[in-house]
Amino acid sequence: MAAHLIDGNALAAKIRADVAHRTAALKARGIEPRLAILLVGDDPASDVYTRHKVKDGTETGLAATLERYPAQMAESELLARIRALNEDRAVHGILVQLPLPRHMDAQKVIEAISPAKDVDGFHVASAGALMVGRPGFWPCTPYGCMKMLESIGYELRGKHAVVIGRSNIVGKPMAMMLLQKNATVTICHSATPDLGAFTRQADVIVAAVGKRNILTADMVRPGAVVIDVGMNRDEAGKLCGDVDFEAVRQVASHITPVPGGVGPMTRAMLLVNTLEAAERASA
Ligand SMILES: Nc1nc(=O)c2c([nH]1)NC[C@@H]1CN(c3ccc(C(=O)N[C@@H](CCC(=O)O)C(=O)O)cc3)C=[N+]21
């Protein structure tokens, strides 16, 4: 029997409706949640992504403004702009679109953002807060994955979760979130020999590598839940994930599609974090 699809578009729509509701309540108190998006350079993909984020904001009543800067912008200038936004009480969230031009130190730029406005959850203070279980902002992609597991009523306690990928923005925070829900967590990565030996023992698999077909059907235990964070293109140029979707869906109990899975959830959680930032600032 084929797996149930976890529909990221539908779940994201529900979350956006809730964000719209809470945003209206804040506005009734005279607070307009505001997200500043900073885009440096003219990468076409970043252009599309940031315009999507502005549109998501507008549709839910949040004010999202896009600031565009030339690729040659000096790092010091970007840092100065971030410091000004940190001081601006009308701005609740700051997002610097990645990747940044090569002459900039992305981590240094991120560390300039006030942790109270770090709605991407990329600041070391946010990473530290997640690790020790204190309030902070969770990175949007793994946060969205947790919401997808929650949406199917999945009980993580005592389950074995295998995360493939150890990036600072997905793999590592994903592992921490699963651990916080009392799963037994294994992190696999490029130096893991025999990936399948690990994934075959998993109740939940999160694939976050950025490589097509890294997870095939023979690597999945029947009934496992599979979350696909990958964003790749096949030879026809079609968007696809890290999972051999058609084959794995015959084995898994639940699976997320690409597109229409984790991607829309990432965008929805950015709205949630921005709203949360505004609520905290006004509390
Ligand atoms: N500071 C920063 N924060 C980010 O969150 C961030 C970033 N930089 N840089 C780039 C990546 C990429 N990213 C995506 C989010 C959603 C979709 C998404 O909604 N994808 C749709 C498909 C879109 C399409 O058709 O191309 C889907 O999967 O269904 C895609 C990509 C956020 N990023």
Automatic annotation (TrEMBL):
It comes from the Bacteria. NADP(+) binds at residues 165-167. Residues 139-281 form the Tetrahydrofolate dehydrogenase/cyclohydrolase NAD(P)-binding domain. Pfam families: THF_DHG_CYH, THF_DHG_CYH_C. Belongs to the tetrahydrofolate dehydrogenase/cyclohydrolase family. This is Bifunctional protein FolD. InterPro entries: Aminoacid_DH-like_N_sf, NAD(P)-bd_dom_sf, THF_DH/CycHdrlase, THF_DH/CycHdrlase_cat_dom, THF_DH/CycHdrlase_CS, THF_DH/CycHdrlase_NAD-bd_dom. The keyword Nuclease does not apply. The gene is folD. Keywords: Amino-acid biosynthesis, Histidine biosynthesis, Hydrolase, Methionine biosynthesis, Multifunctional enzyme, NADP, One-carbon metabolism, Oxidoreductase, Purine biosynthesis. Homodimer. GO terms for biological process: L-histidine biosynthetic process; methionine biosynthetic process; purine nucleotide biosynthetic process; tetrahydrofolate interconversion. Its EC number is 1.5.1.5, 3.5.4.9. Residues 6-120 form the Tetrahydrofolate dehydrogenase/cyclohydrolase catalytic domain. Catalyzes the oxidation of 5,10-methylenetetrahydrofolate to 5,10-methenyltetrahydrofolate and then the hydrolysis of 5,10-methenyltetrahydrofolate to 10-formyltetrahydrofolate. GO terms for cellular component: cytosol. One of its GO terms (molecular function) is methenyltetrahydrofolate cyclohydrolase activity. Pathway: One-carbon metabolism; tetrahydrofolate interconversion. It catalyses: (6R)-5,10-methenyltetrahydrofolate + H2O = (6R)-10-formyltetrahydrofolate + H(+); (6R)-5,10-methylene-5,6,7,8-tetrahydrofolate + NADP(+) = (6R)-5,10-methenyltetrahydrofolate + NADPH.
